[in-house]
Give the backbone structure.
Amino acid sequence: MLNSTWKFDNQTEGFICRFAGIQCWHPDETRVLSISLPDMGLKGEFPRGIQNCTSITSLDLSSNELYGTIPSDISRLIGFIVTVDLSSNLFSGAIPSDISNCSHLNSLKLENNKLEGLIPPEIHLLKRLKTFNVANNMLTGPVPNFVTFPIESYANNSGLCGSPLELCVTERVILKLEKIVTRMNFIELSKATSNFSQDNEIGNGMLGKVYKALVPNGWTVAIKRLQSSEDLEEEFVSEITTLGILRHPNLVSLIGFCYERDERILVYKYMPNGNLHEWLHSTGDKARLLDFPLRVKIVVGVAKALAWLHDGGNFHVVHSNISTQCILLDENFDPKLSNFWEATFVEPNDIGSNLSLSPMVEFLDFTTYKKDVYKFGVVLLEILTGKESYELSCSSQNLSSSSFASPLDVDKLLLGQGFDNMVMQLLELASNCMKFIPDQRPTMQQVYQTVAAIA
């Protein structure tokens, strides 16, 4: 059995340079150059004592019965290693990203183990790597973009995808969407934002930070750089799928996207008036500038967009994430719906076969649309009352009561301006949209017709 506490130094019994499989830099010293112990019947975990072999450049423990994980701090143990062969063992867990700090490494053989998870993208930092093999493991996710290795290096990992293997689902979608939305270069976007400088930051949301930038064609754009992009792959694809296919005056314009290594970036037309939430809940005078006719204009635009998404085009879409924060305002205060990262295509006809969007395509029932209707009702109440959405978590009983639909609940800035009757009609509409039973809520087409008539 290989003792993981073996010190690998001159305190070990015997003269280490005379051990089988041990080669030293010079016969008369104890500096180990290489350890080669393949097919020796060794058992145990990876020997951490190897860190005492500070000059080792080659390690071959292949074809044994070693188990456990490869140490997460492996570069601290064998920092100057050139070749590593741990193939044909029982190692499990993830390939540690720290392996990328073994900067002299030119051969890494990990095939025929039980390794799982992603191949760490940091491996592309190993500029000297000439041999790489992870075949016959349980690895998943995309193959990192680095020096091309033959397909045999990745064989029999059913969850791996990307060149030289079959394209990942995301990559297949991206290739199709390149025909609709411009694919942009990371270096170009980094330059436009002064390397994503905080000085250019205009927002920080759940998916990442947003930057204002001027791109080479002279357009002013908003650049959203997703954080933890590996965890947000589906949201990224959903956003470019929806906004790449759909075009409407009240949807934000997606100008381009970047998909490089671990970078996921979305580029939109810049909206100079920010989002509706900022105007409604600003501590300054913004709310005062948002008079009733302007608020109604915004309500009509949002209702029109949702009605069109639900029933107006070739593709029926449920937004699923409507709030005043995702309603952007252009220079004329025309509303633009954004944040389609939770959007779902409903009854998409031939969209699945045409665009291979299976992760985002769902065949849902009629009540799915009514989730958008409910959230529209919350937005409408927020616009009319000036209250935050979390203050509007009212029960259906409250919503149906005459006391709730009262001028006392309305933003004081809207009262006494000659619009009180219209305000009450909109309050009643909000109440109907937020009914507890989905089937009792109106459709978005009915909502749009109502607000258009009121306006």
